[in-house]
From TrEMBL:
MF (Gene Ontology): flavin adenine dinucleotide binding; oxidoreductase activity
Stretches assigned to the Sulfide dehydrogenase [flavocytochrome c] flavoprotein chain central domain: 164-279
Pfam families per the UniProt record, alphabetical: FCSD-flav_bind (PF09242), FCSD_central (PF21706), Pyr_redox_2 (PF07992)
Swiss-Prot/TrEMBL keywords: FAD, Flavoprotein
Stretches assigned to the FAD/NAD(P)-binding domain: 34-146
Identification of the protein by name: Flavocytochrome C flavoprotein subunit
PANTHER family in UniProt: FAD-DEPENDENT PYRIDINE NUCLEOTIDE-DISULPHIDE OXIDOREDUCTASE (PTHR43755:SF1), PTHR43755
Residue ranges of domain Flavocytochrome c sulphide dehydrogenase flavin-binding in the record: 357-423
Amino acid sequence: MKHLDRRDIVKGLLITMAAGLSSSCATISGAPARVVVIGGGFAGMSCARTLKKLSPSLAVTLVEPKQHYIACPFSNLVIGNGRPMAAQTFSYDRASADGVNHIMQAATAIDADGHQVTLADGRRIDYDRLVLAPGISLNFDVLEGYDQAAAELMPHAWQAGGQTTLLARQLAAMQNGGTVAISVPENPYRCPPGPYERASLIAHYLKTHKPNSKLLVLDSKERFSKQALFMAAWKSEFGDIIEWQGLNDGAKVISVDPAAMTLHTEFDRIKVDVANIIPPQRAGKIAQLSGVANATGWCPINAATFESTLYADIHVIGDAAIANAMPKSAFAANTQAKLCALQIARLLNGKKPIESKLINTCYSLVTPDYGISVAGVYQPDKERWLAIKGAGGTSPLLASRKTRRIEAQYARQWYASITAEVFG
């Protein structure tokens, strides 16, 4: 894996961001320009706070109905009984301290022509630029038998919180010798390696506490992120506890029966004790309601500015955006948010957008002290983010136990750093 390229990109982006600090007087007709950010995750929170740092005079409003944010990264450790939920929970106090106006309401509609956002309580707020960072919504219309009620029996745990603790409780209550199944959807979805990290940490829990149990990974794909690394680790760490089946094995789950705890594939009917159903996904609800998402369910953008190709003055960042080669990850959301904030500050000051490369690194834990990673560097090309060949890579397939422990430490350091930066 090349580290120099990624350090250079980070350095270049920081220099660019510093140059943008001179853009401190963004106004529209003499009044402070108004930027509304919908969504308070890694993307939205990063963008709102960066906007205020770049242009303190901006009127920045964060529309986020929750008082606290529960992070998905590292939530698989909660499921595997290795981390308290409190370590995943963050407040929005720093946004308010920075001068961001946090409105604890859901956005229910967007008037793109009138430049207004309608809130759940009926209020309307005006904007000059709007940033959508709504994350994902789960598509309950695709998998037969799986809806929000079914998720209370077969949790998805793909939006951290109550579903996370529900899946953890089900695993704890399962008898030794039971069967757990994870159903993995087709691409794209939030955090490409996430299901496989989850499988790893559940297998670690089973090996430690319920060694006669088995984990089935029923995948809708034949290829997945860090596949060779995961499969080598599963063999060495868990023996025959994990069984992965892919599309060519007929393993795609096509329907479920929550009452009978059964999953149906093209060829089999599989009864399990615990089922983690990760359904197909699309951009968050407000993107669907406002028409900013296209027929794919995701939001097309102009890569350099993250401005919607469907509506002017609306930007989309994070999981909801079609960022092509860039994965839907917290790291990517954070870097996209910073660049988007800079572009908005420049546009509001009558300056042209700049072009900048972005990076992403995804860490995964196989066990609490066994880490692996994949990294990439990306450049904008009109409506696409393209990977720069040779500028990224994965952890070495043949590495010492010490190297895996170091990568696990890097993962924890990354999580501590990004959450401190975004929410601390």
